[in-house]
Specification:
Structural class: alpha+beta
Number of strands: 4
Organism: Geodermatophilus ruber
CATH class of the largest domain: Alpha Beta
Number of domains: 2
Radius of gyration: 20 Å
Oligomer: single chain
Helix content: 25-40%
CATH superfamily of the largest domain: Lrp/AsnC effector binding domain/regulation of amino acid metabolism (RAM) domain
Strand order of the largest sheet: 2-3-1-4
GO biological process, one term: response to amino acid
Pfam families: AsnC_trans_reg (PF01037), HTH_24 (PF13412)
InterPro entries: AsnC-type_HTH_dom (IPR000485), Dimeric_a/b-barrel (IPR011008), Tscrpt_reg_AsnC-like (IPR019888), Tscrpt_reg_AsnC/Lrp_C (IPR019887), WH-like_DNA-bd_sf (IPR036388), WH_DNA-bd_sf (IPR036390)
Shape: elongated
Protein name: Transcriptional regulator, AsnC family
Largest sheet: 4 strands, antiparallel
């Protein structure tokens, strides 16, 4: 894997366009960014090879699938149990994401469930994982700002050029 130490404005615009619509065809990306199709392809290849662009995944509306309850579960673990607990959590279908953290909790786990009773059952299952000492759960009421990268990429590349590409008009 190559490393990309920085990105320029064109990279940021390309990544933001893909974040907004991962199904955009190469020709549409080139037209929106006002660069050659080969430029877009070369940039995508470089960003993918460097591991910056990890994939072209679909965004799933969990509520429309009947998974209306999303919770963040803070886990406190026994000393030395981190990897074993992570491995167990990886095998649980309701676990969407696991983050190792600092502070009182060792892990923060995002979980989706159909209902509060189902969430309670999932939480009991998580609490039964060897090495989990305590949990504290927060239920998300809504997601007013979903995961996004475009504003950060724009800020990181503010004032940078677009390589040899000309800036978009207007």
């Amino acid at each position: 894997m190559n490393e990309v130490s920085s990105i320029d404005r064109l990279d940021a615009e390309l990544l933001a366009a893909l974040d907004a619509d991962p199904r955009l065809p190469m020709s549409e990306l080139a037209a929106r960014l006002r660069v050659a199709r080969n430029t877009v392809q070369a940039r995508l290849t470089r960003l993918t090879d460097a591991g910056v662009l990890e994939g072209f995944g679909a965004r799933v509306d969990l509520a429309r699938l009947g998974l209306a309850v999303v919770a963040f579960v803070h886990l406190e673990l026994a000393q030395g149990a981190l990897q074993a607990v992570i491995d167990e959590l990886r095998s649980r279908a309701h676990v969407l994401e696991v983050n190792a953290t600092t502070g009182r909790s060792d892990l923060v786990v995002r979980i989706a469930a159909r209902s509060h009773p189902e969430l309670q059952a999932v939480l009991q299952d998580v609490l039964a994982v060897p090495g989990v000492l305590r949990t504290a759960t927060e239920i998300a009421l809504s997601t007013p700002v979903p995961y996004r990268v475009a504003p950060l990429l724009s800020a990181l590349t503010e004032g940078s050029g677009r390589g040899r590409a000309q800036p978009p008009l207007g």
